[in-house]
Amino acid sequence: MDHRYNPQELIAFIKDLFHSAGMELEKCEVVAPLLVEADLIGHTTHGIAQVPAYLTGLQNGQMLGKGQPTVVSDRGPVIVWDGKRISGVWLTAVAIDLAIERAKTYGITTVSIRRSGHIACLAAFLSRATKEDLLIELASSDPSVESVAPYGGTKAAFTPNPIAVGIPTTDQPLLIDISASITTNGLTGRLHAESKKLPGLWVQDNTGKASDDPSVLFSDPPGTILPIGGKEYGHKGFGLALMIEALTQGLSGFGRADPPEGWGAAVYLKITDPSAFCGIEEFKRQTTWLADSCRNTPPAPGFKAVRLPGDNAFKQRTIAFQKGVPIYPGLLEDLAPFAKKFKLDMPRPLDE
Length: 352
Hints:
38% of the residues lie in helices and 16% in strands. It has 3 domains: 1-67 and 310-346, Malate/L-lactate/L-sulpholactate dehydrogenase, four-helix barrel (Hypothetical Oxidoreductase Yiak, Chain: A, domain 1, Orthogonal Bundle); 69-180 and 232-289, Ribosomal Protein S8, Chain: A, domain 1 (2-Layer Sandwich); 183-225, 2-Layer Sandwich (Wheat Germ Agglutinin (Isolectin 2), domain 1). By secondary structure, the chain is an alpha+beta fold.
């Protein structure tokens, strides 16, 4: 990642790519900044890296760039949408905006979305709520894909199942973005393509032997990603995965019990307004004290300091706006054929 790029130029380029591929302009203006935001905060497998797949999806009909979700149910603070395979990044963003508006009336608002397109990086959405002094919980799964084994099993039963939480404080918010598995499909796919190993025994082959080689996921039959906790304590990740599957698929009414429909997502979103509880000042007094307490803990051997979720994201984002966005090798090259097809100029690095 030697070259750096102007964030606004990347956003404009990706917006033009999506618009050229048939996505409505107002959706492009929401999706492009959120994908670049993922790279700004260091999530390089779930930002710009998703653009080629999204463009392909727009072309083959797997993802839609037009239309509105169908309202399945609306009880005020509880909403269910059928996303109709519309861009999941756009659906999630507008669902958050709606939930923010209603949470200020009801205290809590929950939105469940079935048949959404893939939603990319969950952490990129969190500041939409935290900047309004609201607590946000966001989770996603894909009922048509299996790559993670249940604890004690060897056959895939679910996806990595990310869950993210944004927590306001008096300083920068806490941005938690984790998954129920040790690693993701994006990272294992990238390392497999580069013939690299994982940092630890994060996957297992089809016999159940733990491995650091992502190629075991591409054998026949394939191996699986391990849940958080791995071979020893994987029951913790397994439990988290079951919870996320119930929240995303159970509440939306479409999941693994139904015929698969291809790559996409089921989404669970909850916005909580602390002012409806103890009040925002009391809430932030508690969360800030906790954050400060953690940061002031003496570091263990091998650590310079305790780093809270979101600390590194804010640091990288600040540097990216000052010096440009570092792009993972190969990502822009993957977009070159689309740029050529749509007669668009490729972004140029700032050091040229």
